[in-house]
Amino acid sequence: MVHELPYLPDSFLLESDLLDQLSSRTGCQRCLIGDQGQMLLVLHDVPKPGVPERKALFFWHDTKGVWHGSESAGLQGLARLLDDYAKAIDEQEAIIDDADTAKEIFDLIRHAAPLARSTRNLYHAVLDAATKLPKDRDLRLARDRSHENERAADLLYADAQVTLEFIRAERAEEQAKSSDRLARLGFRLNLLAGFFLPLVALGGLMGMNIELPAFATKGFWFIFMGGLLFGVMILFVVGYRTGESSDD
To answer: At 174, is the pLDDT very low, low, confident or very high (cuts 50, 70, 90)?
Structure first.
């Protein structure tokens, strides 16, 4: 039956029941079965990053048992399509092995996610066709290969997510270590400031333009040593109690 769908080749003489299952858009990947035994496989080409549209490929099985492809004879186009999917998955697997930044992994996930969905839908479409034509050897081979691609794409997507989570955890651990080092450094500086606090206070007091008592002017070094001793006591008490708290 002559069709008026622009995306189908003119050589595809589909029966009316198959045409009734189609619309003006190609739609998702699926296997369509007609009343007279015809079959139409609607598949998608390998998705490209950042491109929401999908290029559709069609494979028509007529009543005589002959396959017709929209871009090649028979199921040769399906074999090439499966090769393209396998090549795309291998390329992304090579990228994830060399990726060491969150941006690289994020870009990979953006490609791996639609790749995993496309391979899954392609497998189910080919599986439906192979179930209807169990004696078709080429179709059974395509079913097994599409299942391998689906599994590889799922593993790629899972590995990318795990790698991204690992990078996040590693960065968080590094930040925690840096925060701990800064806290320890700040604690030491505070102890040092506490050690010199009595001397600073005495120096400020003795540097004021006021008349100091006689014992303050004659016993400067005794006052100085007393300030140091008081600073040591502050250092010991604060450091000891803080050490007990950190151990607890």
So the answer is: confident
Q: Which of 133, 114, 126 is nearest to 30 (CA)?
A: 126
Closest CA to 101 of 164, 8, 195: 164
Given a contact cutoff of 8 angstroms between Cβ atoms, the answer to whether 69 and 55 are in contact is: no
What are the pLDDT digits (tens) for 147-168? 999 999 999 988 888 888 877 7
Question: What are the CA-CA distances from residue 133 to residues 3, 98, 125, 130, 149 (Å)?
Answer: 25, 43, 13, 5, 21
C-alpha–C-alpha distance, residues 26 and 43, integer Å: 9
- Its domain, for residue 215, covers 180-247
Counted domains in the chain: 1
Q: What is the distance between the alpha carbons of residues 63 and 170, in angstroms, rounded to a whole number?
A: 60
Q: What is the pLDDT of residue 248?
A: 47
- Alpha-carbon gap, residue 124 to 150, rounded angstroms: 10
67-103: b (≥16 Cβ within 10 Å) or e: bbbbebeebebbeebbeebbebbeebbebbeebeeee
66 falls within a domain: no
* Coil/strand/helix, residue 235: helix
Rounded CA gap, 39 and 30, in Å? 11
Report the Cα 234 to chain-centroid distance in Å.
52
Can you point out the beta strands (E) in the chain? 30-33, 39-44, 56-61, 67-69
Q: Is residue 186 part of a domain?
A: yes
Q: Is residue 188 part of a domain?
A: yes
Question: Does the residue 53 lie in any domain?
Answer: no
CB 170 within 8 A of CB 101: no
Compute CA distances 92 → 88, 96, 110, 165, whole Å. Answer: 6, 6, 11, 18
